[in-house]
Design a protein that fits this description.
Number of domains: 1
Number of strands: 0
Mean pLDDT: 77
Distance between the termini: 27 Å
Structural class: mainly alpha
Largest sheet: none
Order of helices and strands: HHH
Low-confidence stretches: none
Number of helices: 3
Shape: elongated
Helix content: over 70%
Strand content: under 5%
Protein backbone atom coordinates (compact mmCIF):
# COMPACT_ATOMS: atom_id res chain seq x y z
CA UNK A 1 0.00 0.00 0.00
CA UNK A 2 2.71 2.43 1.02
CA UNK A 3 4.71 1.37 -2.02
CA UNK A 4 1.82 2.14 -4.39
CA UNK A 5 1.38 5.57 -2.81
CA UNK A 6 5.09 6.17 -3.30
CA UNK A 7 4.80 5.25 -6.96
CA UNK A 8 1.90 7.68 -7.41
CA UNK A 9 3.98 10.40 -5.77
CA UNK A 10 6.89 9.46 -8.00
CA UNK A 11 4.76 9.90 -11.12
CA UNK A 12 3.13 13.17 -10.05
CA UNK A 13 6.31 14.76 -8.65
CA UNK A 14 8.75 13.25 -11.10
CA UNK A 15 10.30 16.56 -12.12
CA UNK A 16 11.19 17.56 -8.56
CA UNK A 17 12.51 14.14 -7.57
CA UNK A 18 16.01 14.08 -6.11
CA UNK A 19 18.60 11.78 -7.65
CA UNK A 20 18.92 9.76 -4.43
CA UNK A 21 15.20 9.13 -4.25
CA UNK A 22 14.98 8.27 -7.95
CA UNK A 23 17.83 5.79 -7.52
CA UNK A 24 16.08 4.23 -4.53
CA UNK A 25 12.88 3.70 -6.56
CA UNK A 26 14.88 2.32 -9.47
CA UNK A 27 16.59 -0.25 -7.25
CA UNK A 28 13.28 -1.17 -5.61
CA UNK A 29 11.77 -1.78 -9.05
CA UNK A 30 14.67 -4.07 -9.96
CA UNK A 31 14.23 -6.07 -6.76
CA UNK A 32 10.53 -6.49 -7.52
CA UNK A 33 11.32 -7.64 -11.07
CA UNK A 34 13.88 -10.15 -9.75
CA UNK A 35 11.36 -11.54 -7.29
CA UNK A 36 8.62 -11.80 -9.91
CA UNK A 37 10.96 -13.56 -12.33
CA UNK A 38 11.86 -16.15 -9.70
CA UNK A 39 8.28 -16.81 -8.59
CA UNK A 40 6.39 -16.83 -11.92
CA UNK A 41 6.62 -19.91 -14.13
CA UNK A 42 4.68 -18.56 -17.11
CA UNK A 43 7.22 -18.08 -19.95
CA UNK A 44 5.21 -15.28 -21.59
CA UNK A 45 5.17 -13.26 -18.38
CA UNK A 46 8.85 -13.87 -17.65
CA UNK A 47 9.72 -12.78 -21.20
CA UNK A 48 7.81 -9.53 -20.71
CA UNK A 49 9.51 -8.97 -17.36
CA UNK A 50 12.86 -9.59 -19.03
CA UNK A 51 12.06 -7.00 -21.71
CA UNK A 52 10.99 -4.52 -19.05
CA UNK A 53 14.20 -5.09 -17.09
CA UNK A 54 16.20 -4.68 -20.29
CA UNK A 55 14.56 -1.27 -20.85
CA UNK A 56 15.24 -0.27 -17.23
CA UNK A 57 18.87 -1.21 -17.63
CA UNK A 58 19.40 1.05 -20.63
CA UNK A 59 18.34 4.40 -19.14
Amino acid sequence: EEFLTSIKDLITQGKSLSYDKAYYYFMAAKVILDTLERTIDDPEITNRLWELRHKLGHH
